[in-house]
Amino acid sequence: MINLARLAAAPVETAPFPYFSTQDLIEPDNLAAVSRDFPLIDKAGLFPLSGLTYGPAFERLISDLRRREFEVLMERKLGVDLSDKPLMITVRGRCAKRDGRPHTDSEDKIATGLLYLNDADWDAPGGRLRLLRSGDVNDAITEIPPVGGTLVAFRRTDRSWHGHEPFEGPRRYIMFNWVRSEAALAKNVGRHKLSAAIKRMDLFHAR
User: Fold this and answer.
1) DSSP 8-state secondary structure symbol assigned to residue 181
2) On the CB side of 44, how many CA atoms lie within 13 Å of its CA?
3) What pLDDT is attached to residue 118?
4) Of 2, 13, 101, 193, which is least packed with CB atoms within 10 Å of its CB?
5) CATH number of the domain residue 61 falls in
């Protein structure tokens, strides 16, 4: 489902941290199928796969992200060995205005990827990922609209700042992170599960 040749051809920038982006990583027919099979998420935040229900096309995409061939390309492009590192996959369906504040990711993470699954056009000024030189959201190296089939990936460093201008509404993507250890994976997945449970409770009480 993922166009590995297109991924391999994407140019990599190394300053101020290693990163790259590429578009049209998923063919339109496959992208439409994944969109139909995307899990129903009605709250903002990142949700672990274990708590979500989704269809077969989405499941095939997740399987592609877990393939060693995909991991090898990420290793080569970001200059890091991921062969013995656990992979954490989370999913976002909606964005809140408070989301997108600049950050560098936690030290538990080695490499981060975002595969966007929104519609073909993104007209909103907010919600466009910015890779940054500093913690200022206006100090941008580049800005990437989160259109379907676009992938952005970077190696986590103390300078890997990223964020976006405020946006509220549907904003779909799969986030995948290679983390340093099984303990780090358990800690981060547990945090996401707790956050998801709290969100479900908030939604239940709001009805």
Assistant:
1) -
2) 11
3) 94
4) 101
5) 2.60.120.620
Which structural domain, as residue segments, surrounds residue 17?
A: 4-206
Give the separation between CA 187 and CA 193, rounded to whole angstroms.
10
pLDDT of residue 17: 98
Cα distance between residue 82 and residue 16, in whole Å: 21
Q: What is the mean pLDDT of residues 99-112?
A: 97
Determine the residue type at 192.
H
- Within a 10 A sphere around the Cβ of 72, how many other Cβ atoms? 14
Give CA–CA dist 207/199, Å, rounded: 13
Give the pLDDT confidence of 3-35 residue by residue, as tens digits.
999 999 999 999 999 999 999 999 999 999 999
Q: What is the C-alpha separation between 88 and 8, in angstroms, rounded?
A: 22
What pLDDT score does 201 carry? 54
Q: What SS3 state is found at 114? A: strand
The number of domains in the chain is 1
Distance, CA of 185 to CA of 25 (rounded, Å): 27
* Residue at token pair 């966007």: 116
pLDDT at 196: 62
Q: Which of 27, 7, 107 is nearest to 67 (CA)?
A: 7
Strands (E), the chain: 19-22, 46-48, 87-95, 109-116, 129-132, 140-144, 151-155, 162-163, 169-179
